[in-house]
Amino acid sequence: MKLQFATQNEGKLAEAKRVLSRFGIDVIGLPVDLWEPSSGEIQTVTMEKLRQIRRMGYDRVMVDDAGIFFAAYDHFPGVLTKRVFDRIGYRGVRKLLEGEDRTAWFEGCIAVSWDGRTGLFSARTSGRILDPIPDDIRPEAGLPFNPIFIPDGETRVLAAMTPEEQMKHSYRSRALEQMAEWLLNQQREGFHLFSR
Ligand SMILES: O=P(O)(O)OP(=O)(O)OP(=O)(O)OC[C@H]1O[C@@H](n2cnc3c(O)ncnc32)[C@H](O)[C@@H]1O
Fold first, then answer.
1. CA of 107 to the centre of ligand 1 (A)
2. Rg of the chain on CA atoms, in Å
3. DSSP assignment, residue 134?
4. What atom in ligand 1 is closest to the CA of residue 67?
5. Contact call for residues 79 and 36 (beta carbons, < 8 A)
6. Which atom of ligand 1 is nearest to the CA of 32?
7. Which InterPro entries does the entry link to (predicted)?
């Protein structure tokens, strides 16, 4: 089964390929630039991305939106994660969280269009931001919070873990697994209709 993934984020694409290959789903990257609203919930932004990719004529396609939330700041940066990080970097995050509650969580959502049907899957991972944030930190491709995020129950940041360990803590992997189950069900149902 082939599924397109409309994203420009290499980290997201690599994770989706890794997780979905276990379900026999072959992920093909579709590096299109989708406009994102600057307020609202992650789910709302995800559905907006799906609406745009459908309007471009694509089906059998998924989109993903994700963000990090700091307990010290109400709903921030959330849907603005990429825009905020691109401007303030680790130096800004360090200043923002100095002396503040380091509790944080990732929230992610995946929306898929399959033969015109829509599936929406959300998940979250709770943890805390590394304290202090070192000066010489290097961002991972597309996933800059991995080197400074420690999931609950762990002492190491995500970037220090193997892909298998990371997957255990990944909200994206959980959402992808839910989506894979849903897709396989869609296929089974389609097959029954066809063979009736
Ligand atoms: O093309 P798209 O899929 O939109 O890719 P993007 O990078 O613009 O993705 P988002 O709009 O969802 O931005 C979310 C940002 O949150 C960060 N992020 C998302 N998921 C992450 C993860 O699992 N680990 C670390 N950082 C993450 C990273 O900075 C992303 O660029």
1. 10
2. 17
3. P
4. 16
5. yes
6. 1
7. ITPase-like_fam, RdgB/HAM1
Question: Active-site positions?
Answer: 65
- The whole model's pTM is what? 0.91
Question: What's CA 49's distance to the chain center, in Å?
Answer: 13
Question: Tens of pLDDT along the chain (196 residues)?
Answer: 999 999 999 989 999 999 999 999 999 999 999 999 988 899 999 999 999 999 999 999 999 999 999 999 998 999 999 999 999 999 999 999 999 999 999 999 999 999 999 999 999 999 999 999 999 898 777 889 999 999 999 999 999 999 889 999 999 999 999 999 999 998 887 766 554 4
7 lines ligand 1 (CB under 6 A): yes
Per DSSP, what are the bridge partners of residue 63? 111
CATH class of 2-195: alpha beta
* Strand ranges of the sheet holding 117-129, from the earlier edge strand across to the other edge: 26-30, 2-6, 61-70, 103-114, 117-129, 149-151
Report yes or no: 11 and 171 within 8 Å, Cβ to Cβ: no
Domain boundaries, the chain: 2-195
